[in-house]
Please model this.
Amino acid sequence: MVQDVGAKAVTPPERRRSLLRTLFGGIGLLRESTIGMVGFGLILFWVLVALFAPLIAPVSPTATLQPFAPPGTVTASGETLWLGADQLGRDVLSRVIYGSRTVLFYAPVATFCAYFIGCIFGLLAGYLGGWVDDLLNRIADIILAFPVLVLYVVIIVLIGPSGLNIILAVTFASAPGIMRIVRGLTLDLRNRDYIAAAQTSGASLPWILFAELLPNARGPLIVDACLRMGYVIITIGVLGFLGLGLPPPTPDWGSMVAESRAMITFAPWMAVVPAIAISSLVLGFNLLADGLREISLRD
Amino acid sequence: MRSRSDLFPDWSPDQPVLECEGVCVSYFTRAGEIPAVLDFDLKVMQGEAVGLVGESGCGKSTVAMAIMRYLGRNGGIPRGRVLYKGRDMAELTPEELRQLRGSEIAMIYQEPMASLNPSLTLGRQLMEVPLNHEKSVTEKEAYERSVQMLADVKLPDPERVMSAYPHQISGGQQQRVVIAMALLSQPSLLLLDEPTTALDVTVEAGIVDLIGEIAARFNTSMIYISHNLGLILETCDRISVMYSGVVVEEGSVEQVFDRMRHPYTRGLFDCIPLPGADKQARPLIPIGGQLPLPHQRPRGCYFGPRCDFFQAGRCDVPPIPMEPVTDQPGHRSRCIRWDEIDWDAPRQAAAVAETLDEGDVILRIDGLRKYYEVRDNSLAALVSGKRVRHVKANERISFDAREGQTVAIVGESGCGKSTFAKILMGLETASDGGVAFQGEDFADKPVQKRSADEVASMQMVFQNPFDTLNPSHTIGSQLGRVVRKFGDYKDRREVRQRVLELLDLVKLPREFARRRPRQLSGGQKQRVGIARAFAGNPKMVVADEPVSALDVSVAAAVTRLLTDIQRNHRTTLLFISHDLSLVRYLADRVVVMYLGHIVEQGTTDEVFSPPYHPYTEALLSAVPIADTSVEKKRIILEGQLPSVLDPPKGCPFHTRCHRKIGQVCETEVPPVIEDAAGHLIACHIPLGELREIAPVIAEKQVAAE
Model:
């Protein structure tokens, strides 16, 4: 924070230590909630998988080895296909491992963008009220009234499938919901005395919005962000399933499920493995959100 | 179902209704056992009212919960016993306990709205009491008894109240319904936990009156919990003073008020301003230090570290038992030095600042009005064509404030005093009239249009200490921001230096710059709020009830600090308050507001002595005074505060006025009559008659012994 002039000037080392302590303190608090820890563990697992994908993956995700090989098959060249291979003979395990990189890059980025837009408009609507509030709310209503899938198709048909479009689609679809939440929190916060104190000391609008209001809304927003991350992961899966996600041959959990749809009766592993991957990551975020909420309610 | 006498076969009315013997209450948390109340003794006879006094955190509410056996999952009573009509409450079965609560022992809480279910009619909720507790009662009987009880608590039109929902009646009426509900089962013991704290003084006076009447009529025993010594004096026979979980002094009200034998009790009395005395005669003496946390209590006497009479080697050696005060039966004190201290010695008070010579007029309010538009979209409004209605928050406000002066604005909630503060601060603009501040017109100048100097020269101290600081930033960063905004301090080191100076100014340790608001107590937060207001060397500070949410000892210290800084800086202080005792203590001039109108203004002495405006008179009589030597008139205002949407024609006060002279009050706006230069009263009653009114507060005539 820019404003911590006083404290920063005197004791920079102490400050840094306290930041570290806050971070560990947060995890320490989370330890009191079992489901929160389970969620955190699931997410940590996938993050580590994504980070060390090249080291973990037994073969290249795009190498074609033995089509429709069932799990456990040993190929002619000696590799074991632990989770089987797909219709082109690519190793399902390696593709799931590399697929985690796609999800864990696009989901946080898209969520962040949605939050960025949602927070700005939510703070404006809640703090200013009046016609600004009315206008922003009506716009949000229109977007929310649109069926989400149709919205995605429209966006991607207009600009073509690419990573950027995933982010755009997710932002567009979830920002109104975030705006509503931020607006509600702001409505409660804006009547606090410290906001009046900021106003009476002549603080500017951006300062009041981002330095006075937003930090105090962070608790519920962090919980919501975790939940929303789960939805975004599903959304990315859905987009991939509809063929609107990343262009092939990029490994993508959603498109893996989509491609294997026709073969599900005789090669179920092709669909089941990426489906489990998606569910476990979404579950991880949901459990983390529950854990965080549980802790925040306790205090 | 058994009748009540079966539950208590051995009890006769000459035995105590409630007896607590060495009760200890603890909460069991992750950090271990936290003792909240220790060694609590209490005896309540039938028809007796016992007051429990203490500051927040002293365990007085915990005692009430322990009596009700309602401590929650993590609370327990490890030692001691509570006897209700001779039976140990711990031995009662859950079913017997359920019968006891609500029928034998009833409790009235602070917040009436929270005690009533908003989705049921009041009648339904009242009728539930007899229907649940007595099997033979029919619906019809329950209804009739409820109506009768509502009439007993003096609610007008009980039938209408029966079919109303809680939000349709006022706060004072809600509290009357809660009292009626508690009385419906004819309890033997009534526990009142700060029953009037959330109410205005004039409403409070009515409730206090009612409680006194009920006690006499139903012969109910009462335990009255309050932090307000004046209220205890008016309602109770005996009093127990609590400090940090223990009773430090107990006795009859006269004993404790006039011949106190514990330093804490004396400190408590020194902290409260009395409307009978002014600041020269009786300065406020705050108690130094802070209430110890339950797990950090000092050895020996818990009050030791804050006590002027502390003697190492004696006061810090446990146990410190309750000792009887020998010449006064029934009076006990938990002070081992009670017979060594000279209780009549004059208090060593710091020199009182003499009244400042008044400077030039710095603020001139001239005919200020503030109307809010309310759009009415109902069909009736469409038909009648009156779509826009006005909330008249401020009406024709005119007064002056001089440099270095303390001007108090007094009035109950809804009188428009906060709206007025908002206009001054530029958060709202006036609908009409002028606000001249240092010659500049501030009336239509919102804060965005004021220059940095203008913003800095008018600052505000807010009411709620828990809301006044942003919980997300450190104290240093919040003060530093204001310093940079207002001053010429651009360099980091200069800003930091100035922040530390500000902390010195409000007597807070410099380390606080790095702390966050949640690490501070209410009083400390309020000090930071004061430091923030004085950061830009303001010419005028508006303080909106700055100490109303604080405990008396803390409030005294914060008040003192605020006035000291104000005097040293020759700042004009606009002090908004409902606490007339405090206003009497610190204000130079007083402005009394009612429904957006100024009804009376003048110097403090002029306003506090006749001639009064009838509203001032009622307000003064409503203030509970913790002083047994004064006598005051009782004036209970009838009816409720009219809505600002539909204010009465003529004099705004005529609907509740006890001195209404006739038709003229309802039709004509009262003239402003001048008693002395600057003492203005807006009333139809001729000045001569107003002058003849006897003072509200008078020294009690000492009866010949």
